[in-house]
UniProtKB/TrEMBL annotation:
One Gene Ontology MF term: 4 iron, 4 sulfur cluster binding
All residue ranges annotated as the 4Fe-4S domain in the record: 1-54
InterPro entries: 4Fe-4S_dom
Classification via PROSITE patterns: 4FE4S
Keywords for this protein: 4Fe-4S, Iron, Iron-sulfur, Metal-binding
Descriptive protein name: 4Fe-4S domain-containing protein
Entries under Pfam families matching the protein: FeS
Length: 243
């Protein structure tokens, strides 16, 4: 199947896939409809104006199909190369020009950095018996993030209302029951810090970028723990804000 539409490469996850490349794979296999992408428009197809020029690494002759559009294979190849480049090289500047010191990455074998949240109504943790393995949804309205998140619970404290979790893709929320807390504070993050400008310094407030942040905005937090492990620099960041 030839895909005649080029996604924006935002990797926002709204379609239920982790990346635009994954979404194209699933669409090409007939598992999902292109309309699941919030950026999809039927008239937004690839045409002669956005094809690779002769000066690019790939020529038009090797990239175009008989219908005059990019083949699915070449489109996926270009998308994957772009994603790899973004994942390897961080500029140290977010989408609005704010500089950040480091990127927070997940621990080895984990899908995302560990996140500690407190619902605006902390009593819901006890009332709804939220526990390990459950799925929680809501918006991190406390720090001011506009993106609705799906979170897999690692642990939940019924006394404090603190939920330890991983951020996962929204597809899980479409296939199982969820606890929709609607809005929550982000109490802390834990993960591996990858230095871009300056390493984390205990007791200081610094700007950082959560790995795979959907909106690409620098966050600020107080570094409350920092020690070296075989997997890298393990940090705990608290009082998370987007300023």
């Amino acid at each position: 199947m030839v895909i005649s539409w080029n996604p924006p490469g935002k990797n926002c996850g709204a379609c239920g896939s982790q990346t635009c490349s994954d979404f194209l794979d699933r669409a090409g296999a007939g598992l999902v409809e292109l309309e699941l992408c919030p950026f999809y428009e039927k008239n937004n197809i690839i045409n002669q104006d956005n094809l690779l020029s002769r000066n690019n690494v790939l020529s038009q002759s090797s990239t175009l199909s008989q219908d005059g559009i990019l083949s699915r294979e070449n489109l996926l190849s270009r998308e994957k190369l772009a994603i790899q480049a973004r994942n390897i090289n961080y500029s140290g500047v977010d989408v609005v020009g704010k500089e950040y010191d480091f990127v927070l990455l997940p621990f080895p074998g984990e899908p995302s950095a560990r996140k500690f949240i407190v619902p605006f109504r902390a009593d819901l943790v006890e009332k709804w018996d939220i526990k390990k393995g459950d799925l929680v949804t809501g918006r991190p309205a406390g720090p001011g993030c506009p993106v609705y998140h799906a979170l897999r619970v690692l642990s939940a404290n019924p006394v404090t209302g603190v939920i330890e979790c991983h951020t996962v893709g929204p597809m899980a929320a479409r296939t199982e029951d969820v606890h929709d807390v609607q809005a929550y504070h982000v109490h802390a993050f834990e993960g591996i810090a990858s230095t871009v400008r300056k390493p984390p310094v205990f007791g200081t407030r610094q700007y950082f970028l959560p790995g795979n942040c959907m909106i690409g905005l620098a966050h600020t937090a107080l570094v409350n723990m920092s020690f070296q492990k075989p997997s890298g620099l393990h940090v705990r960041l608290e009082d998370i804000r987007i300023l």
